[in-house]
Amino acid sequence: MAETDKEVRYLKGVGEARAKALGKLGIHTLRDLIVYFPRSYEDRTQFSPIMAAPLDTPVCIRAMVANTPTLARVKRGMHLVKLRAVDESGSVDITYFNQTWIRDQLKPGETYIFYGKLSGTLTHRSMANPDWEPEVREGQKTGRILPKYPLCSGVSNKQLMGYIRTALDVSQGDVPDSLPERIREQFGLVQARYAYENIHFPADYGALELARRRLIFEELFILGCAMGRLRGARQGLTGALIPARDMSEFYAALPFVPTGAQRRAVHDALDDMASGRPMNRLVQGDVGSGKTLVAAACAWAICAAGKQTAFMAPTEILAEQHLETLRGFTAVFGLRVEKLTGSMTAKEKRETKAALAAGEIDIIVGTHALITGDVEFSDLGLVITDEQHRFGVNQRSALAAKSQTPHVLVMSATPIPRTLALIIYGDLDVSVIDELPPGRQKVDTFTVDESYRTRLYGFIEKLVAEGRQVFVVCPMVEENEEYDPSLKSAVEHAQELSAAFPSLNVGCIHGKMKARDKDAVMADTLAGKINILVSTTVIEVGVDVPNAALMVIENAERFGLSQLHQLRGRVGRGQFKSWCILISNATNKEARQRLQAMCDTNDGFKISEEDLRLRGPGDFFGQRQHGLPEMHIADLCGDMSTLQTAQEAAKQLLARDPALAMPENARLAAQVDRLLENSLGAIS
Ligand code: ADP
Ligand code: MG
Fold first, then answer.
1. Is residue 546 within 6 Å of ligand 1 at its C-beta?
2. CB of residue 542 inside a 6 A radius of ligand 1
3. Ligand 1 centroid, distance to 573 Cα (angstroms)
């Protein structure tokens, strides 16, 4: 057994309780200790003479204890050790609270290093509770860069440092190392041993940087290899060969001319489907970029090859809408498009399923009901999922498992910065629709507070008089949330608006309604019967009402930036000039910045970058949902350029050794397998 496989219990000073505490930090073996990275570092390398030291900045001073430390009891239960220390520049009064033992440890006439903040005046200096060590032992606690570890109760930073030191020492260079030598040299990275030593106990900041660079690269490289393996595994599969088709017949039947970006995405997909391998493509495009058309075009090509398409939407409202859209696009070709949703009667479902199994239905649109166990297809050729971020990865694979290896097309409006998409969708091919249909106007966006309400109502009145429709979105009020009169629930707010606009038709839609009732309200909205539609975020994704020209968002500070962008995307979809009014009384800086970003740009990618900046990568659209593994040291958003290099390196290596079977890649292969097993399995 390798030294590093030994359990932490083997370490001196680690008993049952300590081992348990370490376990809580995920540390079980010496190896775990070695890869338990500091969260931050404390710079204890700066020394200064007492009188020259900056005040209130931590610094090391080298000083001799000038007197026998005294012990005083200031209050009940509060003891003070006092002493004076001197160097050639002057003296400092040092105090320790409730650390009586220090009185006997600091010996007059001996020199120590004290690390802490100096305070005082020009002539008198003092220091409270400085960390210290005798000059002869300098370099353990002072005069160095000190690692700071994430801790839990039962383990101190000092203890962890000690255990990690020992683990590094006994490992004798047998540290986790999965970078093949060749790659390490090619990218000018330091050796594993050096990296682990210096990530914990950096000799200086230069060494720390080298260590970080290597470890981040390694982590992203393993991720890149794992993603590459997934992609490779797919390439071993065969998919139904759908002969490439001339799409002009389909395009000619559309009510508009497809954009160049739409055509490119369609052709990418057709190429995939004609390749003999199963397609696994993501179509990414900002709200309103026209992704549905791409999906419809692919479905049409599949039907022409005599196969069926399953089209999954995240909500019934969207399923309903896609049904109408697809019927519209394909009517002239005589395709049969049906839906299968949870709210249909048992009889309707039964009949639809029978028709599906008999191959009478060409395109089936639905929600999760589509993936319940008993839905059978006669010949499923293509699975499309819309707004993929709402679907768990597992659900996607469940549907994909319905037929042997259907082609898969995933559509998403989550505007992920390009490079990040590379990783997140590393097992997918990506087409980006980077062009909006012509004639789209910018949605003018304003942030206002409550005092604007009267004017807002005047504006609504005017727009409705011109024949337009208005969306009003209220935040979801959680049931367990404390009552806050400034928070508007959709239902209450709809009542208010009905009272304010007695002659207008105000509709309301929220998550608690029966799907059937939601459908009815949505149908009325599409038919133009509803002037003002109040809703919760149920309309966030995908809903397309070209006649809507105003989006009002109440308590806008309660929404995330990307969510606001999605909501705004519900207007400005037709030929009408459109507006988005964000109502918020929030004064905190972060909220103001978010709302300001909305007013500044309509570009989903810029917004997502801003979102990332404001919220930090951790919060950014829950990585876990994408089945992405947690990174130890790399920051998937911050280490962008390394990410790209590491991806590229992984690709090169896999080109040489697709199965990672070469002996020089054995350690890497083990790491990649571990990653695939632990966190990525669901994606494949
Ligand atoms: P999203 O990408 O947000 O799903 P949709 O597919 O719902 O966008 O399309 C948004 C709107 O733009 C729809 O009303 C659709 O009919 C229209 N549209 C799509 N493509 C074009 C085009 N090439 N020219 C004009 N309008 C288009
Ligand atoms: Mg859509």
1. yes
2. yes
3. 7
pTM above 0.85? no
CB 198 within 8 A of CB 210: yes
Does any ligand 1 atom lie closer than 6 A to the CB of residue 29?
no
- CA-nearest residue for atom 15, ligand 1, is 290
Pairing relation of β-strands 280-285 and 429-433? Answer: parallel
Mean pLDDT by 10 residues, the chain (684 residues): 82 89 92 91 93 92 95 86 95 93 93 94 90 90 91 90 93 84 94 95 93 92 85 75 91 94 96 90 86 96 94 84 92 94 90 95 89 84 77 51 75 66 66 86 92 94 95 77 68 92 93 81 90 82 82 91 87 89 91 91 82 58 45 68 85 91 91 75 40
Per residue, the 3-state secondary structure of 283-317, as one string, reads EEECCCCCHHHHHHHHHHHHHHCCCEEEEECCCHH
Residue 81 φ/ψ, nearest 5 degrees: -100, 130
User: Which residues 6+ apart lie within 8 Å of 377 measured at CB?
Assistant: 308, 310, 356, 357, 402, 403
Q: Which ligand is nearest to the CA of 263?
A: 1
Whose C-alpha lies nearest to ligand 1, atom 5?
A: 290
Given a contact cutoff of 8 angstroms between Cβ atoms, the answer to whether 326 and 337 are in contact is yes
Q: Cβ(288) to ligand 1 under 6 A?
A: yes
Residues sharing a CB contact under 8 Å with residue 408, sequence separation 6 or more, in sequence order = 278, 279, 280, 281, 382, 383, 384, 385, 396, 400
| CA 541 – ligand 1 centroid, Å | 14
Atom of ligand 1 nearest to the CA of 544: 7
Tokens encoding 87: 């160097």
Q: From the CB of 289, is ligand 1 less than 6 Å away? A: yes
Question: Measured in angstroms, how far is the CA atom of residue 440 from the centroid of ligand 1?
Answer: 10
Instruction: Report the candidate in 286, 292, 360, 350 with the shortest Cα–Cα distance to residue 321.
Output: 292
Q: Which candidate, 237, 230, 233, places its Cα nearest to that of 276? A: 237
